[in-house]
Structures are given as C-alpha cells and as structure tokens.
Amino acid sequence: MSDVLLEVDAIHTFIGQFHILEGVSLKVRAGSITALLGRNGAGKTTTLRSIMGLNPPRSGSIRLAGEPINGRPAYEIAQLGVGYVPEHRAIFRDLTVEENLRLAERKRGDLAKRSDFIMALFPDLKRFYRHPGGKLSGGQQQMLAIARALVADNRLLLIDEPSEGLAPIIVEQIVAALRQMAAETTILLVEQNFAMAAQLADEYYILDDGRSVQHGRMADLVHDHATIDKYLGAG
Amino acid sequence: MIEWIQRRRGLIAGIVAAILFAVWASSQYEPRVLASILLSGLTLGALYFLVTSGLSLIFGLMDVLNFAHGTLFMIGAYIGFTLYANPRLLLNTLPFVLAFVAGWLLARWLPFSSLPAGHRRPLWVVAVLVGVFAVWGFELAPLATTALSSGGRVPTEQAQAPVGIFIARTLGLAITGLIAGAAFVIGSEHARRPANRDLAWPLGLLALALIIAPLRLSAEGWILALDSNTRFLLALVAGAGGGAALGGLMEWSLIRPLYSRPIYQVLVTLGLVFVGTELVKGIWGPGGYFMELPAWFSRRGPSCPSPNLIAWLQDNCASIDVLGRPFPSYRIFIIALGIAMFIGIAVLLRYTRLGMIIRAGVQDGEMVQALGINVRRVFTLVFALGAGLAALGGVAAAPFLGISPGLGQEFQLQAFIAVVIGGMGSFTGAAMGALLVGLARAFGDQMVLTGIQLPWMSEAMTFSPSIARASTVLIMALVLLLRPAGLFGKKE
Ligand SMILES: Nc1ncnc2c1ncn2[C@@H]1O[C@H](COP(=O)(O)OP(=O)(O)O)[C@@H](O)[C@H]1O
Ligand SMILES: [Mg+2]
C-alpha cells in the first residue's frame, strides 16, 4: 500500500503571464486520501488543473504510476484513469443526471457496471435521474459531480472543495461517501473545511503562495496549532 | 399565477405580438396572398436555417464566429451546380485531391515520425516544389466553361489534358502529399498510435484516383446522361460533402491553431471570405450561372399547376395551387429540406452520444475534455457538419436564386442577424431566428410591392426595398432590448 501513484515534482505553472505555481511537489500514495491545504489563492485549484492537463505546467514533472503525463492533453490524462471533480462542480446543467453520468463513460457499459455502487452512495441521484442537472440543489450537484468521476475506472480522483457552500448535514453525507470511495481508489482532496479534511485524510500537503511548504501525517497536523494558524489562517 | 406570468413574460409578449401581427396581416391581405407570403417566408427561413444552424453550433461549441459560413454556402452552390450541369471540372480535379490525401495518409503509415526535426522545413519546401511542378500548366478555365457562360462550351477532349500527362500529374500530387505528410508527422506522436496506420485508406484512395483518371471523358457522359432528378440528388450530396470537407479542412488547418487567439480566428474567417470569393471567380469566372430545375419541379402543361401536394407527386408540375394562386413547387421542396434537416439535427443532438457531447461542450468544453473526450476532434466534426449544412443550403438555393460569387454575402449577414435574434449557441434559437428573419423578409418584400394600408390613411404607404431589408435589423434591435441574450440564448 505504500507505492506512490502520483508524483508531482517541482512544477511551475503560468496563467497568462502570471507565475502562479512556483515549485509545487507532492506524492500521493495508492489507496490513500491526501489533503491539499492552504489559504484561498494559495494555488490548490491550479495544482489540480496542472495535474489534469487543463493548465499544463511549464516545467517540472508529473508522473502517474511512474509514467510521465505532463504535456499530454487533458483527455488523454483522463483516459489514463484520472477523474476530476472541479471547484464549483461544473455540472452540465442542460443535460439530465443520466446524461451527465453517461458522458463520463469511457467504454460502453461503464455506467451499467457502476450504477448500483453510485446509487447506493447517492440515492438522490436515482430520484432525479431524468431531471436536468441545473434543477438539482447545490448538494445534489456536488454528488453528481463526484458520481461522474466514479463512472469510469479511475485510479486517481482529484476533488476540489466538495464541501463548499453546503449545509453541514450534506457535508456529512459527502464525507461518508468519500470514505467509502477511498476503499477502492486514491484521492487527492482540496478542502478549506479543515475539520472535514482532518476526518478523512491520511496525509497532507500545505501550499502557500504557489509553493508546497510543508507535508506530513494528518494525525500530526491536527495538534500542530502553530502551523494551522500560520498557513491555514482563520480556517 | 402572477409569478408564472412574470417568469414567462417574454413568451407571453411574443405570443401577443404574433397574434396582433396575424390579425393585422389578415386584415391587410387576402388569404391567398397571405398564404403565398407565408410560404415565401418559410422558403427563405429554411435556407437561412441551413446557414444559421451551423453558425450557431460552431459558435456555441467553440466560440468561433465563422464569417466564412456564407462563403461555404456559395461554394456549395458552385460544387453542386458543377456536378449537375458540367461535371467535367470535378472529374478532372477529384483524382488530384484523392491522390494528395492518399499520399498524406501514407506518410503516417511509413516511419517518418522518427526523422530529425531539422528535416521538417526542407521537406515542406520540396513538397511545394513537387506540387507546383505536378500541376504546372494545368488549366481550370476550359474545364469550367459551360455553354451558358460567355465563352461557349469547349469540347471535352480539348478541355482535358491527355491521359498520360494527367496520370503523371496525379502521381506527382500523391508524391507531394507523401512528402508534405512526412514533414507533418516528423516529431509528432502518430508513431505512438498504431490505430492511425490503416493502409486500406491511402491505397484505396490512390486506386480510386487512378481509376477515375482514364475514365474522365466517359464518366462525364454517364453523369450527364442520368436524368435530371438523379443528378440533382447527386448535386445535393456532392455540394454538402464538398462543403463539409472544406469546413473540416478549414477548422483543422486554420482555426485549430488559433483557439488561444480568438481575434485572429475572426480575422482568418474574414480573410477566407475574400480568398474564397476570388478563388471562385478565378475558377468559374466572375459572372453568374443559372441552374435549371430538375424534372420533378419543372413540368408545365394543361394539368398544371398541380391542385395539391399529393397531385404534384404524380404530375411534377412547376407550381402547386395554394388557395387559387400558383406557388413554385421547388420552394416547397426547400421548405421540406429545411424541416428535414431541422429534425435530423434535433435527433442527432438529442439522442446520440455525439449530440450529447456537443450539448455538454456548448456549456463547458473543458469539463468534457476532463472526462476523457477528445473535444478537438468533435470541434472538427461539428465544423464540417455546419459547413456541410451551409453548402447544402447553397445547392438548394442555386436553382431558386441563381449562382454568383456574391451569393453568400447576403445570406451571411441575414444569418448573423437571425442567430443573434435566436440567441447565440442555441439550436432552437437558430431555427426560430431563421424563421423570423425569413418571414420578415417575405412581408417586407410584399410591402415594397404593394405598400401597406393603415385605417387612418387614404392612400397606401409605400416603402423602398432598403427598408424591407432593414426590417430584420429592426426586429433584432427589438428582441435584444427585451432579451439581451436573444430569444433562446443563455450565453452572453
Ligand atoms: N485566470 C486567472 N488569471 C490570473 N490569476 C489567476 C487566475 N486564476 C487564478 N489566479 C490566481 O492564481 C492564484 C491561485 O489560484 P487558485 O489555484 O484558484 O487558488 P486556490 O484554489 O488555492 O484558492 C490566486 O492568486 C489567483 O488569484
Ligand atoms: Mg480553489
């Protein structure tokens, strides 16, 4: 269980002419949940987008199970088994729940195979199966966004702030779902809600101002109030 | 209830406006006049729709404003007409295109991708030189002239190059394609993907080119000996297919490298309007052509006009009786074509995986990509589809409006107006906008013809034709005032 599935090494990413990531490195072990923490604007979303190939880094390297993936187009990275649950969900609002899920199939029958697992995790999706995604509540949209990443056989899930703007009771549902998912895949989780991240993650990385500044075991960070105050601010 | 009215006030305003207009129009015109205005409007609307549907899909999915869409419409008309009336030009150039593509594909099959990157530029130069040498002295003008154009028709044997030279040129272009293809694949990733290495395509295309080459003369005769209806159907297919191929090529070569620079994309499509127009003038001459109606729509005689649509299926009259007034049957065909295409695209969008990808891509192309779908390939496909629809519209318009290098421009402008009215990126909007603009044009034309009579005026008020044309702009301004994103638009 200790082999490294994802290895990001000193990546530098630009958006336009802005140098956003100035050396981010991290390792995600297979079968674990790794939390990516940091203040607003630290570069967490940009890191996930870099891994996904949506904002390819200009230098540095990204390896998935040892194979370099930086420079490949996003769709190829996805096909290698990386699922992405973006910030603000990015549900296809005019497509039904079913179509949202079907779109994520990489081969015929993916959805049929995974449907029971997904519907057990998020029973609401079954109820609204033929409704447009835009008609769902915020929490249901988040569930749909996560479910979409579960349709294909993904080795690694990149999940960006799944608790954002959701009521505590919904957040609990999502925590439970992520915990079940972690039994089967590997998750790199960006989360502002520290309590939630602390519940779920095995390891953590902290980003500050576009750099990875600290990492370790989540169990240790929980007691390290100095670090929490310094890098995670009011969170 | 009140809330419902507030939410639907756009719809309600639209319905009220439509009813008021209907009441006014029926007081203004006799039913039979009204019917033929409506049918004329539908005819124009169907043609506009063939342009707006592609424009709108292309804009919705890839944010490209394709100013060259009208040019593709015009080129479609020329290709269709050429196949219909004088296939010689197509038969004498098709082998060249096929041979070039065959060479290009063959290059992917051979291990060129491992050549050093420094070979790239010299290879391009060689390719251009070989290509120029292969077609040097090949004349298009005699192939394009028809009896109808001023020069009179040149006999086929004179117009054609001798078969030996022609085959040499064909092979030369295959070699050009091979070299250019080699330059293209150097350092690329094609070597990684054996799926692209299917030999059947390049060899099949080359064989086809070499089969057509000696048969050009007889093939021309065979096509012209077909009855006009079959030739007309072939013209529709050839025009749409040619337009789709050109559109796909255009996206792949000129639009695709510029997705990060949208202003340049717009400039490129604008530039293509001029390039396309000049190219057409260079090949077919600056004058216009008239395309004869196929037999289905051209019979005249004692039993004509056909009393109704069912009778027309039997007697194929040039016009059909609508409430006592003859209406050209060909225009009914255009309306039917527009409706068929509307249903076809709607089904494609609604029920196929490609359609699902397009609808999702209109909302968020990046997310589609992140799900493992190669959106760029879908872009090319949709560009080809949109161009094909426009070109199909061009062929359909040819017997109705005539063919000239300026044919596309009028359609381009009106189609833009229609798309803005309907809402950029919305398929339903594209259809509704086209319909509205078509009807507005038809009513505008009628008002120019007869003026309008308002109750408090003693004489009919008359209009100049330019006001009829401006009426669509007026509608656009009104719609945008009420709904800034257009009738069905969601994007700004
Ligand atoms: N499109 C953009 N243009 C310019 N700067 C951006 C853009 N997107 C993000 N940034 C900047 O990049 C930095 C990192 O952003 P982000 O990765 O979204 O942070 P986080 O997800 O940690 O809140 C921020 O300072 C933000 O202002
Ligand atoms: Mg973020």
Explain the layout of strands and helices.
The complex is a heterodimer of chains A (235) and B (492).
Chain A: E1 4-15, E2 18-29, E3 33-37, H1 44-52, E4 59-64, E5 67-68, H2 74-79, E6 82-85, H3 97-103, H4 110-121, H5 123-127, H6 138-151, E7 156-160, H7 168-182, E8 186-190, H8 194-200, E9 203-208, E10 211-217, H9 218-221, H10 225-232
Parallel strand pairs in A: 3-8, 3-9, 6-7, 7-8
Antiparallel strand pairs in A: 1-2, 1-4, 4-5, 9-10
Chain B: H1 2-7, H2 9-28, H3 31-62, H4 69-85, H5 88-109, H6 120-135, H7 141-144, H8 156-159, H9 163-185, H10 200-225, H11 228-255, H12 262-284, H13 309-315, E1 319-322, E2 325-328, H14 329-351, H15 353-370, H16 375-401, H17 407-422, H18 427-450, H19 465-482
Antiparallel strand pairs in B: 1-2
Bound molecules: adenosine-5'-diphosphate (ADP) and magnesium ion (MG).
Question: What are the main properties of this structure?
Answer:
heterodimer; A: 235 residues; alpha/beta; Rossmann fold; 6-stranded mixed beta sheet; 10 helices; 10 strands; 27% strand; globular; B: 492 residues; mainly alpha; 19 helices; 72% helix; binds adenosine-5'-diphosphate; binds magnesium ion
Task: Give a quick precis of the structure.
With 235 residues, chain A is α/β, with parallel strands linked by helices. Chain A is built from 10 helices and 10 strands.
Q: State the fourth-level CATH superfamily of the domain at 1-81 and 201-235 in chain A.
A: P-loop containing nucleotide triphosphate hydrolases
What is the residue-mean pLDDT of chain A, rounded to a whole number?
Answer: 87
Heterogens: adenosine-5'-diphosphate, magnesium ion
Count of beta strands of chain A:
10
Q: Please, how many domains of chain B?
A: 1
Number of strands of chain B: 2
The CATH architecture of the domain at 1-81 and 201-235 in chain A would be 3-Layer(aba) Sandwich
Main location (chain B): membrane
Organism (chain B): Chloroflexus islandicus
Membrane topology (chain B): Multi-pass membrane protein
Subcellular location (chain B): Cell membrane
